[in-house]
Design goal:
About 40% of the residues lie in helices and about 20% in strands. α6 (about 155-180) packs antiparallel against α7 (about 185-200). A hairpin with a 4-residue loop joins β17 and β18 (about 465). The strands form five sheets. Strands 1, 8, 9, 10, 11, 17 and 18 form a seven-stranded antiparallel beta sheet that branches. A three-stranded antiparallel beta sheet has the order 2-4-5, with helices on one face. The chain has a three-stranded antiparallel beta sheet with strand order 3-16-12, with no helix packed on it. By secondary structure, the chain is α+β, with helices and mostly antiparallel strands.
């Protein structure tokens, strides 16, 4: 009897397990069907038959308020909330696109002041001041990291920020020109596009913001100070090496920065030499550094290069009578000269001075002289009162004072603001020393010259190469 009861008990347990397994499988199947229905948004209400149930099967209806089950009303509400959430997300996304920081247009046209509405512009490349012979390294390090130096840094931050704004306008302008320019364009076309873009990006505003000097567009053996006059239709061709030198300023804080434009890769070594020499000069510059030491470092690097052109090898030379210079407000050449060859002044660089470190390499003699017609002019910074007899000279001087002050200008710009028949008046101002003429500077015909240039400031705590960009 006990054995029979045990057998019946086992049989009953086995049946129970089978039933449980079937129930579990059925529950899983129902769950899958339920998910399918929910995904398709086909919900069966109380007393309704689902379209997914095959014919002949019993359909169980569920009351809306059955415990442990989600009512159809709640499902509808959840779906409605999901749609609302989606709409909100779309709104947030669109709001981010229209209400976020402005993006520059292509071609660039939005002033950089609008791209950085908080007034904090990108900081340039930060470098340490180099150790200086005769000055204890620990003393120099302490000086540059002291609280006093940091306080001086903060005190001059407004000045640095003005220069950074001008540098950002320069970077965006030259990037556009590098992408846009092609061989076969006229110099006037290139200078016009560059200057128009720079004026927009700097937010030209009289003498408070604008171009610091005309665009240098000097080809081949012409090293510097050439810009086309209104009647000049010269073309930049595939085999030309053209120096693009232009400046921007905010409140007279000038960014003087240049690069060399070329299309034929046969000039790669010349370009590499000059870029390397400029970077060497930047690295060598610093507080308490002697100017002659910078020139020595530049020449050593520049003249370690040579280039092969048309089967002939040429040594690359530093142009000895061209150089870098210090910069002051509204004064592009502020008095100190940074040589690019050995020798030169033993004067030291000083704290908070701005410098243009520029180098010129040549396949010619390495000496330049005045050549061609003059296009660059600048009112003398130190010129006092000079009596003028010609009314035309007085009128032209008033125009120069109003539009350019002591910043450089060119004949093409005078034409652009409506000046006519000014050549005699301009010559009179030059003869009397009120205005200085800067004619193109050329090496021997047939040679090639290249240039790179950056503006830096010797901050108390570091050296900031303000005009540095991703390009050079």
């Amino acid at each position: 009897m006990a054995a029979m009861l045990d057998e019946q008990k086992l049989e009953h347990e086995e049946k129970k397990e089978i039933v449980n397994e079937e129930d579990t499988a059925g529950a899983l199947e129902k769950t899958k069907k339920g998910k399918k229905k929910k995904h398709k948004k086909k919900k069966a209400g109380a007393g309704e038959v689902s379209a997914d149930v095959p014919e002949g099967e019993e359909v169980k209806t569920v009351e809306n308020n059955a415990p442990g089950k989600e009512s159809n009303t709640e499902v509808a509400e959840n779906d409605a909330e999901t749609e609302d959430d989606k709409k909100k997300k779309k709104k947030h996304k669109s709001r981010g696109k229209t209400g976020g920081p402005k993006q520059q247009t292509d071609p660039p046209s939005i002033p950089v002041s609008e791209l950085f509405p908080d007034g904090n512009f990108p900081i340039g490349e930060i470098m340490d001041h180099p150790p200086v012979e005769g000055i204890d390294e620990r003393t120099a390090r302490n000086r540059f990291t002291s609280e006093e130096a940091r306080a001086l840094d903060r005190m001059h931050n407004d000045i640095y920020n003005e220069a950074r704004q001008a540098a950002e306008a320069h970077r965006q302008t030259r990037k556009h020109i590098m992408d846009w320019v092609k061989s076969g364009m006229t110099m006037k076309e290139i200078c016009g596009e560059l200057e128009s873009t720079a004026r927009k990006l700097i937010g030209e505003n009289g003498l408070k913001a604008g171009l610091a000097f005309p665009t240098g567009c000097s080809k081949n053996y012409i090293a510097a100070h050439y810009t086309p006059n209104s009647d000049d239709d010269s073309i930049v061709e595939y085999d030309d090496v053209t120096k693009i030198d232009f400046g921007t300023h905010i409140n007279g804080r000038i960014i003087d920065c240049a690069f060399t434009l070329y299309f034929n890769p046969k000039y790669d070594k010349l370009i590499e030499a000059v870029r390397d020499a400029t970077n060497t000069g930047i690295k060598a510059a610093g507080i308490d550094v002697r100017l002659c030491s910078v020139g020595c470092a530049i020449q050593e690097v520049m003249e370690s290069y040579e280039i092969e052109l048309n089967g002939k090898t040429f040594p690359i030379k530093s142009i000895r009578n061209l150089n870098g210079h210090s910069i002051a407000p509204y004064r592009i050449h502020a008095g100190k000269t940074v040589p690019i060859v050995r020798g030169g002044e033993a004067t030291r660089m000083e704290e908070n001075e701005f410098y243009a470190i520029e180098t010129f390499g040549s396949t010619g003699k390495g000496i330049v002289h005045d050549d061609l017609y003059c296009s660059h002019y600048m009112k003398s910074f130190d010129a006092g009162f000079v009596p003028l007899r010609l009314q035309s000279s007085k009128s032209l001087l008033n125009t120069i004072n109003k539009h350019y002050g002591t910043l450089a200008f060119c004949k093409r710009w005078l034409d652009g603001i409506g000046c006519t028949k000014y050549n005699m008046a301009l010559k009179d101002l030059c003869d009397k020393g009120v205005v200085d003429a800067y004619p193109p500077l050329a090496d021997i015909k047939g040679c090639y010259t290249a240039q790179f240039e950056h503006t830096l400031v010797l901050r108390p705590t570091c050296k900031e190469v303000i005009s540095r960009g991703d390009d050079y």
